[in-house]
TrEMBL record:
Similarity annotation: Belongs to the acyl-CoA dehydrogenase family.
Organism name: Streptomyces luteosporeus
Name used for this protein in its record: Acyl-CoA dehydrogenase family protein
Domain Acyl-CoA dehydrogenase/oxidase C-terminal: 234-381
Cofactors, names only: FAD
Database matches in Pfam families: Acyl-CoA_dh_1, Acyl-CoA_dh_M, Acyl-CoA_dh_N
Entry keywords, A to Z: FAD, Flavoprotein, Oxidoreductase, Transit peptide
Transmembrane segments: none
Length: 388
């Protein structure tokens, strides 16, 4: 039997445990996010702390990490969770991926035993939310130019001064992973909320990712003890290494947003009538649906392939760029095409397609813009560095 929702039989690639995790996250997203997300989106507010605790109870926070209360799931299982959460909303997937793939990953990979014990168990339950501050107002695609500076005092303490911009989870975070220039290169610091001189005002007036907290981080001579630095993180390669994990989750997640839009368009095309017949009977609509299905399932297959490489320890950063570039670009096209199938209803919050399409404008930009990933691939293909 041909399955319109799985035309290539990709489900056959999954094991029982993979399906169980996928189904649990799907059920949570459908019951806890979908009924409310349009309202959160319209209000530009999201109950991030509550959702974090629920995702923690599901075992989804830092699920690909081992120990410290983390689930030790496979990369494919983590990807499936990202897909199911983003099928509801990219903003909630951002909450999940910044917590697990950026903040928790940075502490797990580069932190001391004491830092891991202090933060990771509480972050795995969602009791503490983390954020990851790399981007600055004047340094986005080129984080190597960052100005935030950490000065070491004669007593060994650190004093941080600077600003980070567009930081997901910033205002609700209990701990911020902040990347700063030091006299010995880029280092990462753990800044607990409430530290004098540190504040995280929320950025308002966004027309994308409205169900996600995005903030500025202000560091005004923030004094931190010597052990606030991540001991194993030296140089720009440390934060860029964290990005591989979040970008990998986005490869899957974007296909969740695309799946929702495709399924909405398919259902609409079957039932909406014009000229006395369902619009799905018109060849032009069928062409759109066929093209959407092809790109959607090719994208999911690509995500599986990269997930298997990650599980085998063989995933290269250029391959992550390949996946992020393709899947986000195709996902936004699928959402925009779905929007046209719905006609005027496509612009309404009563349907999810415009919300997903506008969310994906952010996803296209964060975690490396389309152009950055083209240039990473271009460099790998030609051996020539176009950045400088
Ligand atoms: P470059 O000289 O190429 O590299 C500096 C050092 O870093 C290493 N490296 C990587 N290591 C691991 N993984 C990667 N993906 C890496 N990319 C580079 C590199 O080997 C080198 O190491 P070493 O030992 O030789 O020093 O650096 P560059 O300054 O030329 O920049 C390269 C470029 C443009 C690719 C990089 O700067 C970049 O990726 N820019 C984009 C910035 C970005 O993606 N920012 C994301 C911020 S976080 C975010 O957006 C979260 S949103 C999440 C959400 O809400 O879901
Ligand atoms: P710029 O770097 O100024 O780029 C502007 C344009 O110029 C882009 O099209 C870019 O591709 C192009 N461009 C730049 N350089 C080149 C070049 N060499 N060749 C060709 N084109 C080029 N950051 C974090 O650190 N943590 C977070 O949690 C986080 N969350 C975010 C949440 C949201 C909702 C958004 C929108 C952003 C978030 N970001 C976060 C920031 C994000 O990573 C940056 O916006 C992104 O890296 C791009 O930086 P920029 O906005 O400064 O754009």
């Amino acid at each position: 039997m041909f399955d319109a929702h799985d035309p290539l039989g990709i489900d056959d690639l999954l094991g029982d445990e993979d399906r169980a995790i996928r189904d649990a996250v799907r059920q949570w997203a459908r019951e806890r996010v979908l009924p409310h997300v349009a309202e959160w989106y319209e209000r530009g507010e999201v109950p991030a702390r509550e959702l974090a605790r629920e995702l923690g109870a599901l075992g989804a926070l830092g699920m690909q990490l081992t120990g410290y209360g983390c689930a030790g799931a496979s990369a494919v299982q983590y990807g499936l969770a990202c897909l199911e959460v983003e099928a509801a909303d990219s903003g909630i997937r951002s909450l999940l991926s910044v917590q697990g793939s950026l903040a928790m990953y940075a502490i797990h990979r580069f932190g001391s035993q004491e830092q891991k014990q202090q933060w990771l168990p509480a972050m795995a339950t969602g009791e503490v939310i983390g954020c990851f501050g790399l981007t600055e107002p004047d340094h986005g695609s080129d984080p190597g130019g960052m100005r935030t500076y950490a000065k070491r005092t004669p007593g060994g303490d650190w004093v941080l001064t600077g600003r980070k911009m567009w930081i997901t989870n910033g205002s609700v975070a209990g701990v911020a992973v902040v990347w700063a220039r030091t006299d010995e290169g880029v280092r990462g610091f753990l800044v607990p909320a409430g530290t004098p001189g540190f504040s995280a005002p929320e950025i308002r007036h966004k027309w994308s990712l409205r169900a996600s907290v995005t903030s500025e981080l202000v560091l005004d001579e923030v004094r931190l003890p010597a052990d606030a630095v991540l001991p194993e993180a030296t140089g720009l390669r440390a934060p860029l290494g964290c990005l591989n994990h979040a970008r990998y989750g986005i490869v899957w997640g974007a296909m969740g947003a695309a799946r929702t839009c495709f399924e909405t368009a398919l259902e609409y095309a079957r039932t909406r009538e014009q000229f006395g017949r369902p619009i799905g009977g018109f060849q032009l609509t069928q062409g759109k649906l066929a093209d959407m299905a092809v790109e959607l399932h090719k994208g999911i297959l690509l995500a599986h392939h990269l997930g298997r490489r990650m599980d085998a320890g063989r995933l290269r950063p250029e391959q992550v760029s390949f996946g992020k570039l393709n899947n986000v670009r195709e996902a936004i096209e699928i959402c925009r095409t779905a929007r046209t199938v719905l006609g005027a209803n496509g612009i309404s919050l009563e349907y999810p397609v415009m919300r997903h399409a506008t969310n994906l404008e952010s996803v296209l930009t964060y975690e490396g813009t389309v152009e950055m990933h083209q240039l990473v691939l271009g460099k790998a293909l030609t051996g020539l560095d176009a950045f400088r």
